[in-house]
């Protein structure tokens, strides 16, 4: 290993450990835990897979000195499965879609490992543990209001029904969350790594601007079939298909069309020559607040070609 590789390996190892400690000890910065792979990705691009793996192992050992072996293994797995694999993908300079797929696989392996560790090491079913925790919290809240006499009987009944409905919805959301989390965090890591590597002078295959995103024809017709199927299931009240499957799929479909709706908004802003970054960020926040409307815009654009209509004059 060259001296430069050793030096950079030590530097990025220290940076990864700092990210781990900051995300662990500062509660409002816990979101940084998902960016822990970034130093290993950049290192992998610069020095290759071997150096990034050695640096990840060193960072895991250092983390164990501060947080203990169990936490260190969790963070180390994040650096190895996601950071090193993505770093190798950047080293090979593959397409952005393939990089996201590599990241999704890495995050999925980590997520599955966490679930199985609860099951086989601790002897606890992860989803059962999650829902038991939620139900225990609900009972504590109800107990507080029942003993404090702040609400009358009718209000307590309404509150209990609202909480039961929330827990039921949470049970439906869990599968889609497990599906979408690896995709979301992989894309965020790829975007951040693209930005960093471009800043330090590397040429990377990046995504097209969001305004230029188009849905592949095959996916367009595939989703159309399932949207029609969901409509038919709703009209005829078909109960043969478990609700959790339909709910999970429709959450994924809605996210896809929400992204296409935001793409349409960005395209319209470019058409009107709006280049202010602050306004684009504001547009994203407004789109999330009005996600039902923006999702419909995305559907209309995909199947009716809205952006082609307002661009006809040019």
Automatic annotation (TrEMBL):
The keyword NAD does not apply. Signal peptide: none annotated. InterPro entries: DUF2232. The chain crosses the membrane at residues 12-36, 73-91, 100-121, 172-197, 218-238, 244-269, 281-306. Pfam families: DUF2232 (PF09991). Keywords: Membrane, Transmembrane, Transmembrane helix. PANTHER family: DUF2232 DOMAIN-CONTAINING PROTEIN (PTHR41324:SF1), MEMBRANE PROTEIN-RELATED (PTHR41324). This is DUF2232 domain-containing protein. The lineage of its organism: Bacteria, Bacillati, Bacillota, Clostridia, Eubacteriales.
């Amino acid at each position: 290993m060259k001296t430069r590789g050793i030096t950079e390996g030590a530097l990025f190892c220290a940076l990864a450990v700092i990210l781990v400690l900051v995300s662990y000890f500062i509660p409002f910065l816990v979101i940084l835990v998902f960016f822990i792979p970034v130093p290993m990705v950049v290192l992998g691009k610069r020095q290759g897979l071997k150096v990034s793996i050695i640096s990840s192992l060193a960072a895991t050992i250092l983390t164990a000195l501060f947080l203990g072996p169990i936490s260190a293994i969790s963070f180390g797995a994040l650096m190895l499965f996601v950071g090193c694999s993505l770093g190798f993908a950047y080293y090979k300079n593959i397409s952005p879609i393939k990089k996201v797929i590599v990241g999704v696989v890495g995050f999925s392996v980590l997520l599955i490992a966490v679930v199985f560790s609860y099951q086989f090491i601790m002897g606890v079913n992860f989803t059962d543990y999650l829902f038991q925790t939620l139900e225990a919290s609900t009972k504590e809240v109800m107990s507080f209001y029942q003993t404090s006499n702040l609400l009358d009987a009718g209000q307590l009944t309404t509150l209990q029904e609202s909480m039961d409905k929330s827990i039921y919805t949470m049970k439906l959301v869990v599968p889609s969350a497990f599906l979408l989390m690896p995709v979301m965090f992989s894309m965020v890591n790829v975007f951040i790594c693209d930005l960093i590597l471009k800043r330090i002078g590397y040429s990377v295959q990046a995504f097209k601007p969001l305004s230029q995103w188009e849905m592949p024809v095959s996916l367009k017709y595939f989703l159309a079939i399932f949207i029609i199927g969901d409509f038919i299931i709703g009209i005829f009240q078909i109960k043969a298909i478990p609700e959790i499957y339909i709910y999970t799929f429709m959450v994924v479909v809605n996210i896809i069309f929400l992204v296409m709706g935001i793409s349409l908004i960005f395209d319209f802003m470019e058409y009107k020559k709006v280049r202010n970054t602050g306004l684009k960020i504001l547009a994203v926040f407004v789109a999330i607040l009005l996600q039902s409307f923006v999702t419909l815009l995305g559907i209309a654009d995909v199947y009716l070609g809205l952006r082609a209509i307002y661009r006809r004059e040019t």
